Recover the amino acids of this structure.
């Protein structure tokens, strides 16, 4: 009868097809198709990273080499680091005819003190120089302008530096009437770990001979760094 409702359709196991095939999950316009990981893409990224590291190393090498060749503060920093490490590395010096920088092998100093002396026997103390820590070869000599009756110089026991091999003494018994003499002391090794003062005692006209006279002197000490 037209007034009675139709019965509901029987259940079905048929899945209806989507109206927009292949569906929103695989719609190229909506999202890309899924891809499996590629080892080649990972290697490409690793290779790019390595290229960047190499470029950084080249830049750092240029900076460090430039500092080592032109920057004295950086050079001294390297010297101090090598000395502090105690490692068996080549000693730093120069072979181009220029002066070695402070702290380098071959560093050289010449110190001098001028003074005067009387015709009578006289003893006086002079402070010549302070050496920085290191292994040094040192020697002293003294020039006298007047005729002298004997001269002697040395580092007395009261001022004897630790690490000095000998007292660097020089002696002339009685030059007599000779003027403008030079008295040369024995060389010594100074192996010092702290800044060290070198102070000498000078005795003039020790024999008080008849030809002794007053005059002036120029006292020198030279030092060359061995390490």
């Amino acid at each position: 009868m037209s007034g009675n409702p139709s019965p509901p359709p029987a259940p079905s196991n048929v899945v209806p097809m989507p109206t927009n095939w292949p569906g929103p999950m695989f719609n190229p316009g909506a999202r890309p198709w899924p891809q499996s990981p590629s080892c080649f893409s990972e290697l490409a990224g690793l290779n790019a990273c390595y290229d960047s590291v190499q470029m950084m190393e080249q830049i750092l090498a240029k900076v460090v080499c430039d500092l080592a060749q032109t920057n004295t503060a950086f050079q001294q920093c390297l010297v101090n680091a090598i000395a502090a490490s105690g490692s068996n590395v080549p000693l730093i010096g120069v072979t181009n005819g220029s002066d070695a920088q402070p702290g380098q092998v071959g560093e050289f100093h010449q110190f001098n003190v001028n003074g005067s002396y009387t015709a009578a026997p006289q003893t006086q103390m002079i402070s010549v120089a302070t050496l920085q820590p290191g292994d040094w070869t040192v020697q002293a000599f003294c020039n006298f302008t007047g005729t002298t009756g004997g001269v002697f110089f040395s580092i007395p026991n009261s001022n004897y530096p630790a690490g000095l091999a000998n007292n660097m003494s020089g002696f002339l018994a009685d030059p007599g009437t000779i003027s403008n003499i030079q008295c040369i002391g024995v060389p010594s090794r100074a192996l010092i770990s702290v800044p060290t003062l070198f102070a000498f005692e000078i005795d003039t006209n020790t024999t008080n001979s008849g030809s002794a006279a007053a005059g002036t002197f120029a006292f020198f000490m030279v030092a060359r760094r061995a390490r």
